[in-house]
Design brief:
Length: 335
């Protein structure tokens, strides 16, 4: 089966606001009290390519309105995430939303151009940490009650690893917090995978995640998934944790896969579909700043409908839907 893409996609496009006049994509999503929220990634046409978060809301999950002409979350003035904030994933514990996000100490520059260069030019010196020397992407955690005011809690990945696609499970399991993550450097015989893969680990504290706790969850197996990474926060169903992920083939095309993880032990994969459920097809997915990319970062369930919010070609926000029951049955058919 395939997800059904909304006929009026994209649901968000670049606007006249300078900080989002180039791209809006990869939104985290939440649904509560009949309202849909999108915390989306945005950037303007500045040479450095600073990246921010904007907020949009909807009553029906398709027609969204921005809540502000300014970012709701932005790179810090001089902290570890001073270059960019990217790809939010949202979960909720009690009355607080916890947002994992990727960040860099310096903006990435206009990476889609061959002559791209970043804005920092000074020599860092031999004693500088490796994440500064290489502008490595780390993952941070922020907390908010309304998606308008945030508290940065700090880094939750190793500073010397490019570890993004870090996604929290929305509740404790066996009295521990659980995350999915994708350390780019963990590949080769030592790690049991030839390309970057999805790992899972448990912790007693949301800010303390030890390497030794990580287990390899899945690696690429099909032709459309040479490397894989987590996409959206797992959703609890009677049949298991419904979990979307992305696969990237040899040509760099991003597609979306689905699996079910055991509720009490999510290190166990109940079923994983061999076929992808979404691929780039339309202009807003194949003509942008990363051509040929559908990249889900948010999903919600309203009644029996799954709404999947994704970035198209690193330029637009889009949505696709399906029946939760049908998707679960499709996935279970691969047991």
């Amino acid at each position: 089966m395939k997800l059904e893409k909304y006929k009026n996609n994209p649901i968000l496009s670049p606007s006249k606001n300078q900080w989002e006049n180039l791209t809006v994509c990869n939104p985290g999503a939440w649904y509560q009290d009949g309202k849909f929220y999108l915390l989306y990634r945005a950037a303007g046409d500045d040479h450095e390519h600073y990246i921010y978060f904007g907020l949009a809301v909807s009553e029906d999950g398709f027609n969204f309105e921005r809540v502000s002409e300014k970012p709701v979350f932005m790179p810090s003035s001089n902290g570890a995430d001073a270059g960019c904030v990217e790809d939010p994933r949202i979960v909720k514990f009690n009355n607080d939303f916890y947002v994992t996000y990727a960040y860099r100490p310096f903006p990435p520059g206009q990476y889609w151009k061959e002559d791209s260069s970043t804005h920092w030019t000074y020599k860092l010196g031999e004693n500088a940490p490796v994440n500064l020397k290489k502008n490595i992407t780390n993952t941070g955690l922020a907390i908010t009650k309304d998606f308008k005011k945030f508290k940065r809690l700090g880094r939750i990945t190793r500073s010397d690893l490019d570890d993004r696609d870090v996604i929290l499970f929305p509740e404790k399991i066996a009295d521990k917090y659980v995350i999915l993550h994708r350390p780019k450097e963990w590949k080769g015989e030592k790690y049991g995978c030839d390309y970057p893969a999805i790992w899972i680990k448990y912790s007693d504290d949301l800010l303390v995640w030890e390497d030794k706790a990580s287990q390899l969850l899945i690696k690429g197996e099909e032709s459309w998934e040479r490397k894989v990474g987590g996409s959206t926060p797992p959703l609890k169903t009677d049949q298991g944790w419904l979990t979307l992920y992305h696969g990237v083939d040899d040509k760099g095309i991003y597609r979306t896969g689905v699996m079910l993880l055991e509720l009490e032990n999510p290190t166990k994969v109940i079923a994983r579909a061999r076929e992808y459920i979404m691929e780039p097809e339309f202009d807003y997915e194949i003509d942008g700043f990363y051509n040929g990319c559908v990249f889900p970062t948010g999903n919600v369930i309203a009644e029996d409908t799954l709404y999947v919010y994704y970035g198209g070609a690193d330029k637009y926000c889009a949505v696709a839907t399906c029946s939760v029951e049908e998707l679960i049955n499709f996935t279970l058919s691969y047991q």
